[in-house]
Structures are given as C-alpha cells and as structure tokens.
Design brief:
The structure holds 2 protein chains of 2 kinds. Chain A is built from 8 helices and 9 strands. By secondary structure, chain A is α+β, with helices and mostly antiparallel strands. The termini of chain A are far apart. Chain B is elongated and about 105 Å long. In chain B, strands 4-3-7 form a 3-stranded antiparallel beta sheet. In chain B, 56% of the residues lie in helices and 3% in strands. In chain B, β1 and β2 form a beta hairpin. Classes of the chains: A alpha+beta, B mainly alpha. At the A-B interface, α2, α3, β6, α7 and α8 of A face α1, α3, α5, α6 and α9 of B.
Chain lengths: 254, 616
C-alpha cells in the first residue's frame, strides 16, 4: 500500500506541490467562484496549501482512505480503491449524482459546477505515475521533503521515529493512522489539524460499515416481505372464504 | 370547469418558468442556476424532488396493500387514483433527478456497472423496477378504452396480485434505503437526524405520509372537479395514518433518548428549533387531530391534517438530506431557480394526472364527462355542415395554456441572472492588508542600493493598525499582498497598472468595449470608467492615496513622493532636522548579505523580489 506522509513542521508553503500537480494534469488556473470552499481546493486545484498563523502551512488533498466512503457510495463504481492505495475516478462511468461528495468525511471531491458536462475532480495520488514506478508529482516537487511518498508501513514507522525523536516539537499523534479505518495520506504536525476534517472529530470505524448492515439485510427484507405479504393474503382470503361459506350455509339451513 | 382551467393556467406558467431554468441549466451547467457548492453538493433538487418525491408517492403501495392483501374492498374506489399518483410521482422523481444529475444521459450506467454496496444503487434499481410495476398496475385503466387491447388487459388483470406484492416488496426496500443513503454521512448530518435506524424511520413515515398524500390528492381533485368527496374513506385513512405517526413518534424519540441525544432537542440551537418545529408540524399536531373523530370526519379537519403532514415530512426529508447542517454549509439556501424547477416538475406531474382523469376512467367516471341529455352542447364537436364548432371547442384552453407557458418562459429567461452565467461564478476577490515585517529592505533598482525601512516604527508613529492605508493603498485583484513594484513596475516612467488586453480578452475579463468606454466618445484612458467601479474592494475606503485610473507613477516618483512628502511634514512637526536629506534613508551602513534571512538572495532579487524581511 503506497502512502504519503506530510510533515507540517517542514512545510514552507512554497506551493511547488500545487504547481507540480497542475502541470501534470494540465489544470487551468482557478479564480474565486461562489461555489468554492475557503480551503482552495476546487475542480482545478486537486491539492492546496492552507495558510495558518505563525508560518504554518497545511497541505490538503484526498486522503485515499483504506475503506473509502466515496467508493462505497458511488452507485456505478466510478470511484474505486486500487490495490496500490490510491482511490481513483473513472469519468466514463460517472453519472454525476455527487453522492461521493456527500459521503466523504473530509469533504474532498470537487465538482465542475461551471461545465455543461461536469465531472467529479480530486487527487488520484498520480496513479498512472505510481503504476510506472514513479512517485507522485507533488512529493517529487517538494523542496523540503515535507511531503514524502512510500510504503504505508515504512512511512508510519518514519512518522513514529520523528515523534519519538522530537516529542516536544510534535503533537503526539499520526493524523490518519486509525481515523475512519485508516487513510493513506498521513500527517504529523505541531498544530491541530481540525481544518482537514470539516470540524468534526472522526471516529475510528470505517464509514462503509455504517451502511453495510442495512445493505446486507436487503435480500432478506425483499424475500421476507414477499413471503409475508403472500402469506397474509392467503390467510385473509381463506378466512373470508370460510366466513362466506358459513354465512351462505347458515342461510341455506335457515 | 373554470377552477380546472385557472389551475391549469397556473401550472403551465410554472412549467414555462421551469423550462427556461432547465434549458439554462443544461447549457451553462449547474453553477449557473443553483446555489450548490462544493460543500453542499446536494440541495433542494435531491431533498425535495427525489427524497420527498419518493415518499410522497408511497400512497400507491399502501393502498394496494390495503385492498388486495388485507382485503378491505371498501377502499377500492381510491386504488386507481392512488396508483396513478404513485406512478406519476415516480416519473416526476426520475425527471427531477435528471436536472440534478451532472451527466443524466449516463443514468443507464446503473444497469450495467453494478456496485451493490451502494444504497443509491439499490434505490436506483428499486425505483426503476417499481416504476415499471406501477405502469403494469395502472395500464389496465387506459387499455380499457380500446377493445383490441383486451387480451393484454386481461393478462395484466390476471397477474395483478403478483404486481401488487412485487410493488410492496420493492417499496419497502427503497423507501427504507432512501434513509440508508444518509447513514454514511455521520459527520455531515446533525445527530438529531442521523440515526442507524433511519431506514426504519423512513419506511414508517412513508406509510403515514403516503396515506395523507392520498387524502390530499382526493381532496384537491374533489375541489377542482366539484365532485363528491369520499370523506368516510378519507377519515379511515386518517385514522390509520395517525397510528403510523404515533409509531413514528415513539420510534424516533425513543431512539434519540437511547442514543443520549435528548438534550440536543432543547439546547436552544438552530437545529433544535428546526427539529421541534418539524416534529410538531409533521407528527404531533396532525396525529392528535387525527385521533379525534370529530376532526377527521370534517372536510376542514382532513384538509388541515393532510397539508400539515405532507409539508411537514417534505421539510423532514429536506432536513435529513443535508439542510440540517445548514450552518456548517455556510448557509446554503436554494436559489429561486431551484424552486422553479422543483415546482415545474410537480406541475407537470399534476397536469399529467389531470389529463389522465379527464381521458380515462380513473374514478368510476371520466372527470370531464357531462350529462349529455341535460346539456347536449356541453361536449364540443365540429359540425361539418355549418363548418363551425358547436359548444366550446376542445382546444379552447390550449391557447391560454400555451400563452401562459411562453410568457412564463420568457419572463424566466429575462430573470435568470446573467452575472451568474457569464461570470461563470466569479466572486469579487477580497483584498487584504499587507502583513508587513518589522524591518524591510527596499531595493527598487535591484542593484543592492537599498533602503532599510523600519516598518514597525513607521506603523507605531503613524497611528498603529489604522496607518496601513497611508502607504498601502491597493492590492491587485486576486492577490493578497501585492508588492509596490507590481504596479510601479517602471523605475522612471509611468507604467500600466491595468491589463487592458487581459480585460478585453475572451479568456480573461471578457468585457466588451462599451462596458468601460462610454458609447460615442473618443476612447482614451482619460474618459473611461474608474477601476474602483468594478473592483470595489481594490482600494480601502480610508486610503491616503486614491487611485482611479490605469496608470501608475514611476517607482521612484511613487516612493519618493510618499516618503518625502511625509518626511517633509514630520520634519517640521517633530523639529527633527535631516529627515528630508537623502542620506537619512540611503545609507550603506549594513552589509546586506549579513542581515538577510533568505539564503537564495541572488535568485530572489532576480525574480523581482522587492521587499525581504530582515533578521532581528
């Protein structure tokens, strides 16, 4: 499983990652629009650097969850989790329901609101490059190694090593290690990273679990309801028939 | 028939308005007509057209179950209208969804690309299948008209029970699965609406709501067509609905209590009021009213209760599908255009319903049938001998309706805000005050003959925070801290601070000439619009230097004017000689390489960096 580790203490906010991303995917430049959120992500900016006080810079991008809510939500499997780690998007399948955008706990996917033929847009962790054996454009461009690419296990070990070496410098937490079932874009930081999660504390359970109980019971409800209704109909019909016979019989006797 | 005509005219007008918005939506994209954002990707069209629409059409499966499964024959007169309402309701849901989907022509992908973990996939399939089942359930009614279809009709009638049971199975699934849609977003939806038993709540409320929707539909058509109201039946439906509402109330409040969220109802936040209003309006008040026989046996009582339940649950569905997080969402509120499309879809469904009841025996008789013996000219016909219509021609209403439609569409096109379309959603970019450093090195020539500028002292001496605008008078649009050199780019001559070509270019500002240059006057820089008329936050209101036109002074002039003018005043005020002398600022005391923080000084200077912070 490939992953990205971003060390907030090392980021100098130079935006090289953003530029590299835009050059790789030929994304046009973006201007402020009324449907954007404040963080700078948009259909044309798949990663962004959020400025925080005291020269802190937080790079925001898709977290590539290990059990992605967006892929579970998508009714046509346009979004899916690849074995290498990235969650990728197939625009040929998409029908534009935007359920993925509603489902994402980080609020990452963006939409081409100004296009007559719109698609969902988000970071794909440079899946084509990973398949070629290269690293994503953003981590390659980073001049300070603030954001690095590698195997998830190795990056977690590296993050733990840094936390252990500088316990005073960092908040003792690897952001994304366990939340929503673990994600593939990890952060270590000296400031709180609330701004990455729509302001709510994320629990450890993976989001696909929330619907699986309901979805698993679908066949049983379907068959059960059919059997119940057929049975009910049969019983009621039989009762009415008996009652009719009784009434008719009584009338005959009388 | 005047009521019917007036009502239809209103519906056609709404449809016209919706058509104008609908066309705009497909030509210019969703952003041109909706207030949806990346943070609230679902809005009114999902909350009302789809999630509420499916629930409102639940009457079909509830009534068919009552008649065919429970054998309550007394409800048979309302089966056909209920099935028709459900069928048209589902068609309306699909049409409404077409407007909301970004790529509606790909909707068939659900049939091909399976993703059985998705609740939406399941809802989609159930809606497709159930709409087909409803079509099969209802088609005996129109087929009745022509005897050549008798075989097909006989076949459909024979397997009707099968369709009814299939319909109930499918309805149970997707009515509840609409609730499952929202299970996956616990962080988005408020705790008062988000519970693991949402599917069960949705199913129970769909039963209650479906019953009351059948009542409302019956009441409205009785009013329009001046026909007898089946009040006896409706009050029985009302009583059943009351039980469903009671069950809903117990389950919902019970769940909230068990989950420990009971305090949220009374914590005085916006959501708590919304919840209280929704529960009172949709559940508690109509439930109490419907349990009172004296209320549910009157027309007024049934009108009030059915409207309350229907509106209340529409609000509930919209809340659940995202509006309950309205405050997180930086205040999404649907635009009038979203309302127009939703209303248009409903209008179309009602018009289709009216067409069906007028042409076919949805009730025991056709709606437009009249007593021929008493009023032989009531039914219009074309008399060939006299070449004239006897009675009112049957197209008499159509002229009115088409006029209403066309005028409304024209009004709609006129009202759709062009700014939203042509600006492609651009917003005015706020310009913010420069951050500033304690000490700055100002080197306009980029020749290392710099001036050390003590920013902090200047700020303090000139009145603290409020002094910024004495020197910093503008930022370029879309920029957060424009350096002085960005406008005063020439050292000794005036420079162009205004990108004329960019503003005129189709890829840039896309402005036509007459938007800045008045018609009929020689076009020159002197007689154009001021920059600040469009960029209204370009210059702070209290800026000491007001820039109105395109040109910027040369760098030397600008700097010198700003510094020297002030120094001349201050030197008198403070009685501090030497403040106006060149060497007061231009001294060479420091070695610049020692004091700068930045390592790649050379490079930065080449890139036109003018101001760099100093090491303390």
């Amino acid at each position: 499983m490939k992953a990205i580790l971003t060390d907030i203490t090392k980021c100098i906010g130079c935006n090289q990652c953003v530029i590299a991303c835009k050059n790789t995917y030929n994304l046009p430049s973006e201007i402020p629009r009324h449907w954007q959120t404040g963080d700078g992500l948009s259909a044309r900016n798949w990663t962004t650097v959020i400025r925080k006080p005291d020269n802190h810079f937080i790079r925001k991008q898709c977290r590539h969850c290990q059990e992605p809510a967006c892929a579970t939500a998508c009714p046509v499997a346009a979004l899916h989790k690849t074995p290498e780690g990235p969650v990728v998007y197939d625009s040929h399948k998409c029908l534009g329901c935007r359920y993925c955008m509603m489902a994402c706990p980080y609020g990452i996917p963006r939409y081409d609101w100004d296009q007559p033929i719109p698609y969902v847009r988000k970071c794909i962790m440079c899946y084509p490059r990973i398949k070629e054996g290269r690293q994503p454009a953003c981590t390659e461009a980073c001049p300070t190694q603030a954001t690095i690419f590698g195997e998830r296990d190795e990056l977690v070990a590296e993050a733990k090593r840094r936390l252990k070496e500088n316990p005073d410098k960092y908040i003792n937490k690897i952001y994304g290690l366990h939340e929503v079932g673990g994600v593939n874009v990890l952060y270590i930081s000296d400031i709180d990273l609330d701004c990455l999660t729509m302001g709510r504390d994320l629990q450890e359970y993976p989001l696909p679990k929330t619907t699986s109980a309901a979805m698993n019971s679908v066949p049983f409800v379907f068959v059960g309801m059919g059997a119940f209704m057929t049975g009910l109909h049969w019983i009621i019909k039989r009762r009415m028939k008996l009652q009719n016979e009784k009434e008719n019989g009584g009338a005959n006797n009388g | 028939m005047d009521r019917v005509r007036a009502f239809k005219t209103v519906l056609w007008s709404i449809l016209g308005l919706a058509a104008s918005v609908g066309i705009t939506r497909f030509v210019f994209g969703l952003g041109a007509v909706t207030n949806l954002t990346d943070q609230t990707p679902w809005g009114l069209w999902i909350g009302f057209d789809v999630v509420s629409g499916v629930a409102l059409a639940a009457g079909g499966f509830v009534i068919t179950a009552t008649v065919y499964i429970l054998g309550k024959e007394e409800f048979r007169p309302i089966v056909k209208p209920a099935v028709l309402t459900a069928f048209l309701g589902y068609i309306a849901v699909i049409v409404g969804l077409m407007f909301d989907l970004g790529l509606p022509w790909n909707i068939w992908h659900m049939i091909v690309f399976w993703q059985h973990h998705s609740p939406l996939f399941e809802v989609g399939w159930c809606v497709m299948l159930y709409t087909t089942v409803l079509l099969l359930e209802f088609s005996p009614v129109p087929l009745e008209e022509a005897s050549r279809y008798a075989k097909i009709r006989g076949f459909l009638m024979k397997y009707r029970l099968l369709f009814v049971i299939l319909g109930i199975m499918l309805s149970t699934l997707h009515q509840s699965s609409l609730g499952s849609l929202f299970l996956i977003m616990p962080y988005r939806i408020h705790a008062l609406w988000h519970t693991p038993i949402l599917p069960i709540l949705f199913l129970i409320s769909a039963v209650g709501l479906g019953l009351m929707m059948v009542c409302l539909e019956s009441l409205v058509t009785s009013f329009l067509y001046r026909r007898h109201t089946e009040l006896q039946l409706l009050s029985k439906l009302g009583r059943a609905a009351a039980w469903a509402l009671l069950l809903y109330f117990i389950v919902r409040i019970g769940e909230i209590v068990i989950a420990g969220d009971f305090g949220l109802i009374f914590n005085g936040q916006w959501e708590s009021y919304l919840f209280t209003f929704e529960m009172l309006f949709a559940v508690i008040i109509p439930m109490i009213l419907l349990f009172v026989p004296a209320v549910r046996r009157t027309l007024t009582g049934m009108w009030v209760c059915s409207i309350m339940v229907v509106l209340g649950f529409v609000i509930n569905r919209i809340n659940t599908s995202g509006v309950s997080m309205i405050r997180n969402a930086e205040g999404y509120f649907p635009s009038w255009m979203e309302f127009a499309v939703s209303a248009g879809v409903v209008s179309a469904a009602i018009l289709a319903f009216m067409f069906m009841v007028e042409k076919f025996k949805v009730w025991e008789y056709k709606a437009c049938q009249r007593d021929e013996e008493a009023d032989p000219h009531a039914i219009a016909h074309f008399d060939r001998a006299s070449q004239a219509w006897l009675g009112e021609p049957d197209y008499s209403g159509r002229i009115k309706y088409s006029l209403a439609f066309i005028i409304a569409a024209a009004v709609g096109f006129a009202l759709i805000p062009g700014s939203k379309i042509y600006s492609e959603g651009k917003v005015s970019n706020p310009t913010s005050k420069a951050r500033g450093g304690d000490t700055l090195v100002v080197d306009g020539n980029r020749d290392y003959n710099y001036v050390v500028f003590d920013h902090k002292t200047h700020e303090v001496n000139n009145g603290g925070e409020e002094s910024c605008v004495k020197c910093h008078h503008m930022n370029r649009p879309f920029d957060r801290q424009s350096g002085c050199w960005e406008c005063h780019s020439e050292m000794y001559i005036e420079s162009d601070a205004f990108g004329h070509d960019w503003h005129a270019s189709p890829n840039g500002g896309k402005l036509s000439c007459d938007e800045c240059h008045a018609e009929g006057i020689f076009r020159s820089a002197e007689n154009t619009k001021k920059c600040s008329e469009c960029h209204n936050d370009l210059i702070p209101a209290d800026a000491a230097i007001a820039i109105e036109k395109y040109n910027a002074r040369s760098y030397v002039d600008a700097m010198h004017k700003m510094c020297i003018d002030c120094h001349e005043i201050k030197t008198v005020e403070l009685e501090r000689a030497g403040m106006t002398q060149c060497a007061f600022c231009h001294d060479q005391e420091y070695n610049i390489r020692d004091i700068l923080v930045i390592d790649d000084l050379e490079e930065r200077f080449n890139q036109n960096w003018l101001i760099v912070p100093l090491k303390k």
